[in-house]
Design goal:
Distance between the termini: 26 Å
Number of helices: 6
Structural class: alpha+beta
Strand content: 15-25%
Strand order of the largest sheet: 1-4
Number of strands: 6
Mean pLDDT: 79
Helix content: 40-55%
Protein backbone atom coordinates (compact mmCIF):
# COMPACT_ATOMS: atom_id res chain seq x y z
CA UNK A 1 0.00 0.00 0.00
CA UNK A 2 1.28 3.48 -0.83
CA UNK A 3 2.42 6.09 1.62
CA UNK A 4 0.01 8.95 2.23
CA UNK A 5 1.35 12.50 2.53
CA UNK A 6 -0.71 15.43 3.72
CA UNK A 7 0.26 19.02 3.09
CA UNK A 8 -1.51 22.01 4.52
CA UNK A 9 -1.37 25.03 2.25
CA UNK A 10 -3.05 28.38 2.01
CA UNK A 11 -3.58 29.58 -1.57
CA UNK A 12 -2.84 33.22 -2.31
CA UNK A 13 -5.76 35.47 -1.40
CA UNK A 14 -7.32 33.03 1.10
CA UNK A 15 -7.11 33.13 4.83
CA UNK A 16 -5.54 30.18 6.66
CA UNK A 17 -9.05 29.30 7.86
CA UNK A 18 -10.43 28.72 4.34
CA UNK A 19 -11.24 25.13 3.41
CA UNK A 20 -11.21 24.17 -0.28
CA UNK A 21 -13.05 21.03 -1.35
CA UNK A 22 -12.66 19.62 -4.83
CA UNK A 23 -15.72 18.17 -6.53
CA UNK A 24 -15.69 15.31 -9.05
CA UNK A 25 -16.24 17.84 -11.85
CA UNK A 26 -12.82 19.32 -11.13
CA UNK A 27 -14.10 22.73 -9.97
CA UNK A 28 -13.24 23.97 -6.50
CA UNK A 29 -15.72 25.12 -3.94
CA UNK A 30 -14.46 27.41 -1.19
CA UNK A 31 -16.10 27.00 2.16
CA UNK A 32 -15.03 29.22 5.01
CA UNK A 33 -14.69 27.13 8.13
CA UNK A 34 -13.06 28.79 11.12
CA UNK A 35 -10.13 26.98 12.63
CA UNK A 36 -9.49 24.57 9.72
CA UNK A 37 -6.70 24.70 7.17
CA UNK A 38 -6.91 23.23 3.70
CA UNK A 39 -5.49 19.71 3.42
CA UNK A 40 -4.49 18.13 0.12
CA UNK A 41 -3.82 14.41 -0.17
CA UNK A 42 -0.94 13.87 -2.56
CA UNK A 43 -1.17 10.12 -2.69
CA UNK A 44 -3.05 7.46 -0.85
CA UNK A 45 -5.85 5.03 -1.19
CA UNK A 46 -8.22 6.22 1.52
CA UNK A 47 -10.96 6.87 -1.03
CA UNK A 48 -12.13 5.24 -4.23
CA UNK A 49 -11.05 8.37 -6.08
CA UNK A 50 -7.53 8.08 -4.65
CA UNK A 51 -7.27 4.40 -5.50
CA UNK A 52 -8.56 4.92 -9.05
CA UNK A 53 -6.22 7.87 -9.69
CA UNK A 54 -3.23 5.94 -8.35
CA UNK A 55 -4.12 2.90 -10.46
CA UNK A 56 -4.58 5.04 -13.57
CA UNK A 57 -1.26 6.82 -13.10
CA UNK A 58 0.63 3.59 -12.48
CA UNK A 59 -1.05 1.93 -15.43
CA UNK A 60 -0.12 4.83 -17.70
CA UNK A 61 3.51 4.35 -16.68
CA UNK A 62 3.37 1.05 -18.58
CA UNK A 63 2.52 3.05 -21.68
CA UNK A 64 4.84 6.00 -21.07
CA UNK A 65 7.70 4.60 -23.14
CA UNK A 66 5.40 3.63 -26.02
CA UNK A 67 3.59 6.97 -25.99
CA UNK A 68 6.74 9.06 -25.51
CA UNK A 69 8.49 7.29 -28.38
CA UNK A 70 5.56 8.26 -30.59
CA UNK A 71 5.23 11.77 -29.15
CA UNK A 72 1.74 11.16 -27.79
CA UNK A 73 0.15 12.29 -24.55
CA UNK A 74 -2.23 9.99 -22.65
CA UNK A 75 -5.12 12.25 -23.71
CA UNK A 76 -4.14 12.01 -27.37
CA UNK A 77 -3.86 8.24 -27.00
CA UNK A 78 -7.34 8.14 -25.52
CA UNK A 79 -8.68 10.09 -28.46
CA UNK A 80 -6.99 7.84 -31.02
CA UNK A 81 -8.37 4.74 -29.29
CA UNK A 82 -11.89 6.14 -29.65
CA UNK A 83 -11.69 6.66 -33.40
CA UNK A 84 -12.35 4.39 -36.34
CA UNK A 85 -10.91 4.35 -39.86
CA UNK A 86 -14.36 3.72 -41.30
CA UNK A 87 -16.73 6.10 -39.54
CA UNK A 88 -16.10 9.62 -38.37
CA UNK A 89 -17.61 11.06 -35.20
CA UNK A 90 -18.23 14.62 -34.10
CA UNK A 91 -15.74 16.46 -31.92
CA UNK A 92 -18.23 16.60 -29.05
CA UNK A 93 -18.76 12.82 -29.25
CA UNK A 94 -14.99 12.26 -29.34
CA UNK A 95 -14.47 14.57 -26.35
CA UNK A 96 -17.20 12.70 -24.44
CA UNK A 97 -15.79 9.25 -25.27
CA UNK A 98 -12.27 10.38 -24.35
CA UNK A 99 -13.51 12.09 -21.16
CA UNK A 100 -11.95 15.40 -22.15
CA UNK A 101 -13.20 18.97 -22.12
CA UNK A 102 -14.25 19.99 -25.65
CA UNK A 103 -11.54 22.68 -25.81
CA UNK A 104 -8.83 20.16 -24.83
CA UNK A 105 -10.13 17.62 -27.34
CA UNK A 106 -10.07 20.25 -30.09
CA UNK A 107 -6.50 21.27 -29.23
CA UNK A 108 -5.35 17.63 -29.24
CA UNK A 109 -7.23 16.94 -32.48
CA UNK A 110 -5.43 19.85 -34.13
CA UNK A 111 -2.05 18.31 -33.16
CA UNK A 112 -3.12 14.85 -34.33
CA UNK A 113 -4.39 16.25 -37.64
CA UNK A 114 -1.12 18.12 -38.23
CA UNK A 115 0.70 14.79 -37.85
CA UNK A 116 -1.68 13.09 -40.28
CA UNK A 117 -3.04 10.69 -37.64
CA UNK A 118 -6.69 11.71 -38.00
CA UNK A 119 -8.89 13.00 -40.80
CA UNK A 120 -11.64 15.59 -40.76
CA UNK A 121 -14.47 15.49 -43.28
CA UNK A 122 -17.82 17.21 -43.68
CA UNK A 123 -20.77 14.96 -42.84
CA UNK A 124 -22.74 13.92 -45.93
CA UNK A 125 -26.14 14.66 -44.38
CA UNK A 126 -25.08 18.09 -43.07
CA UNK A 127 -21.98 19.64 -44.64
CA UNK A 128 -21.67 22.03 -41.66
CA UNK A 129 -20.89 19.12 -39.30
CA UNK A 130 -17.29 17.96 -39.24
CA UNK A 131 -16.54 14.31 -38.57
CA UNK A 132 -13.21 13.05 -37.28
CA UNK A 133 -11.75 9.63 -37.96
CA UNK A 134 -8.53 7.67 -37.83
CA UNK A 135 -6.24 7.93 -40.87
CA UNK A 136 -4.29 4.94 -42.16
CA UNK A 137 -1.16 6.29 -40.46
CA UNK A 138 -3.16 6.76 -37.24
CA UNK A 139 -4.51 3.21 -37.46
CA UNK A 140 -0.96 1.85 -37.82
CA UNK A 141 0.14 3.84 -34.78
CA UNK A 142 -2.83 2.62 -32.73
CA UNK A 143 -2.07 -0.98 -33.69
CA UNK A 144 1.57 -0.70 -32.62
CA UNK A 145 0.83 0.96 -29.25
CA UNK A 146 -2.08 -1.44 -28.66
CA UNK A 147 0.30 -4.36 -29.10
CA UNK A 148 2.49 -2.97 -26.33
CA UNK A 149 -0.55 -2.30 -24.17
CA UNK A 150 -1.68 -5.92 -24.63
CA UNK A 151 1.71 -7.13 -23.39
CA UNK A 152 1.31 -5.00 -20.24
CA UNK A 153 -2.22 -6.35 -19.74
CA UNK A 154 -1.01 -9.94 -20.05
CA UNK A 155 1.70 -9.20 -17.48
CA UNK A 156 -0.90 -7.79 -15.09
CA UNK A 157 -3.16 -10.78 -15.70
CA UNK A 158 -0.27 -13.13 -14.93
CA UNK A 159 0.60 -11.19 -11.78
CA UNK A 160 -2.91 -11.09 -10.27
CA UNK A 161 -4.42 -14.16 -11.93
CA UNK A 162 -6.93 -14.52 -14.74
CA UNK A 163 -9.98 -14.70 -12.46
CA UNK A 164 -9.04 -11.59 -10.46
CA UNK A 165 -8.13 -9.77 -13.69
CA UNK A 166 -11.54 -10.51 -15.20
CA UNK A 167 -13.23 -9.43 -11.96
CA UNK A 168 -11.19 -6.21 -11.90
CA UNK A 169 -12.31 -5.33 -15.43
CA UNK A 170 -15.93 -6.16 -14.58
CA UNK A 171 -15.86 -3.99 -11.44
CA UNK A 172 -14.21 -1.08 -13.23
CA UNK A 173 -16.92 -1.25 -15.90
CA UNK A 174 -19.55 -1.08 -13.13
CA UNK A 175 -17.82 1.96 -11.60
CA UNK A 176 -17.66 3.64 -15.01
CA UNK A 177 -21.41 3.07 -15.53
CA UNK A 178 -22.44 4.26 -12.06
Amino acid sequence: MGTMFRISITPSGLSPTADIRYSSSGSSEIQKQAGKSMTTILSGYGTLHGALRAAERRWLRHLDAALSARQLSPDQWSMLCNLSTENGITMSELANRSQLAPSSATRHADCLAERGLIFRVAAEEDRRRILIGLSRLGAELVASVSAEEEIAERQLQTKIGARRYAELKRLLELVAEA
